[in-house]
């Protein structure tokens, strides 16, 4: 699946920080049950790669990627764990080359027109606008859509259930990213039903 299709297949890409690998499968099931199938597991914790593997092996229907990739060697490790896409907060020539070499779908982070053009030059036309709120969010995306209409964005960082609909209505937004679908306290408590309810609300932003 190409990254553009992955983006178009979801309304919200949840940004997951999984501290305990035992939370991975019930958390992913809760999100998938609520209609959120594309999951970004951030490589910010020791448990992250094991969490990716556990979800890939045990949660049918989940489309699993990794986030917070900042080192070239992380792409292959993510692919070996079963991830089908990767998200980075920014892009360097080394990251671009490593993603291409390993063949994983990449959603590179950009914040400015120059960074977006550099990513286009590297062959990527789907990008994460990060950090979206600080970058100007709705106004920035509308402005980028003028000279750079070929880029499909996933704004992430400060996006909420309230701000998502206007972003999703833009022609150059494929999906939005956000951590609000898996609040730390709900994950810690194992409130999977509550997380399914949050996922349902998010999935309804763009009914299939
Ligand atoms: C992140 O990298 O943590 C994401 O940008 C999520 O941002 P959010 O917590 O504002 O949704």
From TrEMBL:
PROSITE patterns, A to Z: ALDOLASE_KDPG_KHG_1, ALDOLASE_KDPG_KHG_2
Domain of life: Bacteria
Metabolic or biological pathway, per its Swiss-Prot or TrEMBL entry: Carbohydrate acid metabolism; 2-dehydro-3-deoxy-D-gluconate degradation; D-glyceraldehyde 3-phosphate and pyruvate from 2-dehydro-3-deoxy-D-gluconate: step 2/2
InterPro entries: Aldlse_KDPG_KHG, Aldolase_TIM, KDPG/KHG_AS_1, KDPG/KHG_AS_2
Alphabetized GO MF terms: 2-dehydro-3-deoxy-phosphogluconate aldolase activity
EC number of this enzyme: 4.1.2.14
Reactions it catalyzes: 2-dehydro-3-deoxy-6-phospho-D-gluconate = D-glyceraldehyde 3-phosphate + pyruvate
Alphabetized Gene3D superfamilies for the sequence: Aldolase class I
Keywords linked to the UniProt accession: Carbohydrate metabolism, Lyase, Schiff base
Primary enzyme class: lyase
Keyword check for Transmembrane: no
CDD domains referenced in this protein's UniProt entry, alphabetically: KDPG_aldolase
Homology family: Belongs to the KHG/KDPG aldolase family.
Subunit structure of this chain's protein: Homotrimer.
Protein name: 2-dehydro-3-deoxy-phosphogluconate aldolase
Lineage, opening ranks: Bacteria, Pseudomonadati, Pseudomonadota, Betaproteobacteria, Neisseriales
Gene name for this UniProt entry: eda
């Amino acid at each position: 699946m190409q990254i553009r299709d992955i983006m178009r297949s979801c309304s919200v890409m949840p940004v997951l920080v999984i501290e305990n690998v035992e939370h991975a499968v019930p958390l992913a099931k809760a999100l998938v049950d609520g209609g959120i199938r594309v999951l970004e597991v951030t490589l910010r914790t020791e448990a992250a790669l094991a969490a990716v593997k556990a979800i890939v092996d045990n949660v049918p229907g989940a489309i699993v990627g990794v986030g917070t990739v900042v080192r070239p060697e992380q792409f292959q490790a993510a692919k070996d764990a079963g991830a089908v896409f990767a998200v980075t907060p920014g892009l360097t020539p080394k990251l671009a080359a490593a993603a291409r070499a390993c063949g994983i779908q990449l959603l590179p982070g950009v914040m400015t027109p120059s960074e977006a053009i550099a990513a286009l030059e590297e062959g990527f036309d789907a990008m994460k606008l990060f950090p979206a709120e600080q970058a100007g969010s709705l106004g920035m995306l509308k402005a980028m859509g003028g000279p750079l209409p070929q880029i499909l964005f996933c704004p992430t960082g400060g996006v909420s259930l309230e701000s998502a609909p206007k972003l999703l209505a833009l022609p150059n937004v494929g999906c939005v990213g956000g951590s609000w679908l898996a609040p730390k306290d709900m994950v810690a408590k194992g409130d999977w039903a509550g997380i399914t309810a949050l996922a349902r609300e998010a999935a309804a932003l763009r009914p299939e």
